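To assess whether ligand presence alters the predicted conformation, the chain was also submitted together with shikimate-3-phosphate. Input:
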Amino acid sequence: MAISKVKSIKGEIKVPGDKSISHRGVMFGAISNGITELTGFLDGADCRSTIGCFKAMGIDISQDNDYVIIHGKGLHGLTAPKDMLDVGNSGTTTRLISGILSGQDFVSTLNGDESIQKRPMGRIITPLTEMGANISSIKNNGCAPLKIGGAPLKAIHYNSPVASAQVKSCVLLAGLYADGITSVTEPVVSRNHTELMLSGFGANITTKGLTASIESNPILNGQKIEVPGDISSAAYFIVAGLICPNSDLLIKNVNTNPTRAGIIKIAQDMGANLELLNERIVSGEPVADIHVKTSDLQGCEVSGDIIPALIDEIPVIAVMAACAKGQTTIKDAAELKVKESDRIATVCENLKNMGCDITPTEDGMIINGGNELHGARIKTYKDHRIAMSFAIAGLVANGETCFDDEGCCRISYPDFFKTIGAIVNR
Ligand code: S3P
């Protein structure tokens, strides 16, 4: 696959279903009573890993592209998997399922690919152990493979040192099986899909400021959920529409939950011609159509409480900053180092290779925008968000941009290059 400069971007697109919401729909459906029906499900490798894990624990799940039916067996209906659960590349699967597995009366093991085996699991091992779970890193390095033995769980109040929805969700899910009210306080609010969706299934979850609390042993009932488009996938096209010349793009049906929509605020701060249309609530989540046009962008500071609301979009925000005038500073984002790749390093290496003036820092990067970009061979490190962000940079670069392995897009957006093909004019 090679990408080259475009004359314009025009059209109307829909991006695939939200990854976070798709994972949760399968998980919560599996531990609820009766049928859960998901439309708009993200048929990507990560969410397939979640489906595979629950099938391996006796849950009947049928899938036809973005339509999924889960025959839930209730809170205590999972059965012991015969083999090691395979979480693939998915951090969300690993961390959320660990909370559920901690409450089961069987022992399970889980493992994933090379990247997952390097990602920190101490952040869930610590609170789950405090709750009484028997969870350990098999290689004793704080990473997967993990062994989880069910044990009676104590309700705890956990002060999380990181703003992580995966940690928060893991503890809340274990809290379903605990002996009272479990709560988690975060330093900054992270995405709240678990709180919204699980209460729709019947859990008693409350949120007060930075603290989410859950009552144990609820009766959960299957739901019909319309999964909205993923703002993390829309982000590539938001940026494409803003940085490519003569562009006018409508991205329909995107989740705009404020705990996810940081990129909209930052794009607007940078001077983007961006509007939200047809704002509505779908299955408890805010949704809108996003209209973008070519814009003169100015650098800005990206830091503080907004970081968790745009953490997955920072690679493409860096591309946007490279095309803006002036300096953009990204701070307070050290979490980037423990994503599918070390995204501070991988973003800086690739943008530098395209001619951008960019310097990595301990918790982010400094970008002096405005240099003309030139094509390069992108080192993706098998990180889907790196491949897609740099495909967008390639749309404004002189010469060709190619990839060592663009196949990693299948993790969250299998048809990404098809969508690009449908809207570009060369
Ligand atoms: C996710 C939470 C975030 C995000 C990831 C999906 C989720 O991770 O980066 O892509 O679905 O809960 P952290 O919780 O590690 O910040």
